[in-house]
Amino acid sequence: MGEAMTRTVQPFGAILSSATGAILPAGPITERHVSDMGGLYKDETDWRKAIDAGDPLVYRVDAAPVLDAYGQLLFSITTIEPGAIGSEFFMTKGHWHTEPVGEFYLGLSGQGLLLLFDGQEHLSLELAPGTAGYIPPGWAHRTVNPRTEPFRFLAVYPGGAGHDYERVVREGMGARVVRGGTTYHIEVGLGPRSMTSENDGAAPPTK
Ligand code: PAN
Ligand code: ZN
After folding, report:
1. Residue pair 125/177 in contact by the 8 Å Cβ criterion
2. What are residue 158's phi and psi, to 5 degrees?
3. Which of 16, 59, 145, 164 could form a Cys-Cys staple with 96, CB 3.0–4.6 A?
4. Which of 73, 90, 92 has most ligand 1 atoms within 8 Å of CB, for mutation?
5. Is residue 62 one of the residues assigned to a domain?
6. What average pLDDT does the segment 2-25 reach?
7. Which domain holds residue 82?
8. Does a structural domain hold residue 102?
9. Whose CA is nearest to atom 16 of ligand 1?
10. Number of CB atoms found within 10 A of residue 117's CB
């Protein structure tokens, strides 16, 4: 009985394009423009200006056709375009999972940052093609593209994980990635819009 309940999808092979971010066979596709990012950027004036200037696409998620149900394993490719709002780079909204589940990210093309926040401590990992990031249960996660080409990564996570976006709007991610030096600078601070500068760069996942 339990087995029958979890066998809601037939086995299938898929083609994942690190060049376009497409998954075939395709599942749901989600696009987020600047106007979808309310309350997330440090500078609301710059955010409104970016909407007036054409409301560009910030990122897109191509998901595989897997049912979002307990026992399933969902996977998707996120493509974050290059760009910034004011000094703050294009990024995903970021979320906590509502269930205590982990997630696996694998860099596919371009280079970006995975920000992690457990409500107190924040961490950042660099993701490049062939570099993975593990997100344990209880850590909010957001990805950022501080480069000049699209940043793509694969995400794999359990069905039924649930996504809480509001808590990130309320509490922030503990850090922001802004223009600085030759690449980027990480601004540290707890509140969503109360930031103080502290350190540069990000710890790579392994050395
Ligand atoms: C990812 C994210 C994806 C888009 O698949 O959902 O990168 O980011 P937001 O969901 O924060 O907009 C994931 O972490 N899924 O759980
Ligand atoms: Zn997630």
Report:
1. no
2. -75, 145
3. 164
4. 92
5. yes
6. 82
7. 2-165
8. yes
9. 157
10. 23
Q: Looking at the 3D structure of the chain, how many domains does it have?
A: 1
- Ligand 1 atom nearest to 63, measured from its CA: 5
DSSP conformation class of 35:
G
pLDDT tens by residue, 79-121: 999 999 999 999 999 999 999 999 999 999 999 999 999 999 9
Residue 191 has pLDDT above 50, yes or no: yes
Ligand 1 interacting residues, C-beta cut-off 6 A: 61, 76, 78, 92-95, 103, 141, 143, 155, 157, 161, 163
When pLDDT is cut at 50, 70 and 90, the band that residue 181 belongs to is confident
User: Could you give the percent of the chain with pLDDT greater than 90?
Assistant: 85
Q: Is residue 77 part of a domain?
A: yes
**Is 52:63 a contact under the CB 8 Å cutoff?**
no
Q: Is residue 112 part of a domain?
A: yes
Name the residue of 163, 167, 168 whose CB sits within 8 Å of the most ligand 1 atoms, as the mutation to test its pocket.
163
